[in-house]
Design goal:
Blueprint lengths: L2 H8 L4 H10 L4 E7 L6 E7 L1 H15 L17 H5 L7 E6 L9 H11 L4 H11 L18 H8 L1 H13 L3 E5 L2 E6 L5 H14 L13 E4 L4 E3 L2 E3 L5 E2 L2 H16 L4 H15 L3 H11 L1 H9 L1
Amino acid sequence: MNVIDSILHEFPLGRQDIERLIRTAPSRYKVHEIEKRNGRGMRTIAQPTAEIKLLQRYLVDRYLSNLPVSEVAKAYRLNHSILDHAYPHAKNQYLLKLDFKDFFPSIRSVDFIKHLRKYSTLSREDAITLSRVFFWRPKGQRDLILSIGAPSSPAISNTMLFDFDSALIEYCTKNNITYTRYADDLALSTNQPNILNDALKYVMTLCHSLKYPRLTLNDDKTVFTSKKHHRQLTGLVLSNTGTASIGREKKRTIRAMAHHYKQGILSPEECAKLRGWLAFMMSIDSTYVKTIETMIGQVAFQKLMQG
């Protein structure tokens, strides 16, 4: 059963309706911009319309679940969290943090088609069909690119970097370097001095040598650090004792906000901020979240988390 027949079997639509939906899918996006963190410019968010989202979710489950994803990829995966990305580096002396520039938009539909042809038994026609459903065409551009805002983009990005991750794992294993990746954030750490400079050169060479996708490092976010300095990785603090957490200062801030919430003097905006921090902490330190729940009471805690 090809992709279109699979959709016909799952959804109450005619063949002509499905074919028209797929043909026009790359243009069925609502586009807006948000400011990047730390005022580093604007980020374009392109969200597919409801019917395209529905198709994307179905086709991800149907066709992408068997595509390879490296174990070092810690984002967008069940039973993996930001802690799984940070913790392996906590005990190492030296840390290199890297970041891809324009990560999702750098992945194109032609790359995805090559990937499907390499790692699945789908025909070229089916691969093209899937690429039209999953990828967005920005106004005035010819290429279809992966959008920030589509529910299918995270899963696609993870499998699309399988070859990159595999090559970097091989290099790191030979050089006693620990490597993990959380979306576009890369972390390499070691206890051996003076080898992470060579690792950076290797990553840059690897980005240029890959057949797909076209990856570029964001030089502004390349950071070398060590246990002599304050080490942070994707929002978590790496302690010199080999643990990873949000840090004592942030915990004190959360506890103070929770105390103000209990007293009824926390603003709606601050309540939303507290709720976000506690939701984040659920996967990082559930024991600490439990102490907050005990402090303000179960009923008040549930009211806070329900918004």
